[in-house]
Amino acid sequence: DCVYHLAALPGVPNSLLQPLDYVDYDIKATINVLKAAGMAGVRHVLFASSSSVYGNQGNVPLKEEMAAGQVVSPYAAAKYGAESFCYAYAHLFGYQVTIFRYFTVYGPWGRPDMAISKFIRHLLRG
After folding, report:
1. Are 116 and 45 in contact (CB under 8 A)?
2. Which one is catalytic: 22, 54, 75, 89?
3. Can you say whether the dihedral through the CA atoms of 81, 83, 84, 85 is positive or negative?
4. What are residue 100's phi and psi, to 5 degrees?
5. 3-state DSSP: the chain helix, strand, coil percent, rounded to 5?
6. How does the average pLDDT of the chain come out, rounded?
7. Which candidate among 65, 82, 122, 124 keeps its CA 20 to 30 Å from the CA of 24?
8. In the chain, count of helices (H) and strands (E)?
């Protein structure tokens, strides 16, 4: 009995144009999931976050604790805020929380503006 919360609005560029959408979908919706999980007695919530929560750290190996809230986009701010709510609700309801900070996601439903999709398109074109 666990919940995998993978839903979110993706992407930094759109968050610059529509920041309030990211508050609604990435923070408020996450709070709804976390509360429902707690009320249902779920024992473990797994949350999909983003490497964007690290901000601009330069070209150094990243450690978990390096995400300190110094974000550089509304998208990252929403993800960092949602992570904070994950910890708060885990405390309130007593469930375990695991946060995954994805870097580049790829696959059939991957975003076409991401690096891997661009590389594949260029390779296929020769």
Report:
1. no
2. 75
3. positive
4. -100, 130
5. 50, 15, 35
6. 88
7. 65
8. 5, 3
25 is catalytic: no
Residue 120 pLDDT grade (very low, low, confident, very high; cuts 50, 70, 90):
confident
Contact 35, 89 (CB under 8 A): yes
Widest pairwise Cα distance in the chain = 55
Strand partners, 44: 2, 96
Q: 113 pLDDT band (50/70/90 cuts)?
A: low
Helix ranges, 1-126 (H): 12-17, 19-22, 29-39, 74-93, 115-125
Per-residue pLDDT of 45-93, as tens digits, reads 999 998 888 888 777 777 778 787 789 999 999 999 999 999 999 999 9
Token pair 């993800």 in the structure block, residue = 79
Give the chain's length.
126
pLDDT at 112 over 70: no
Distance, CA of 56 to chain centre:
16
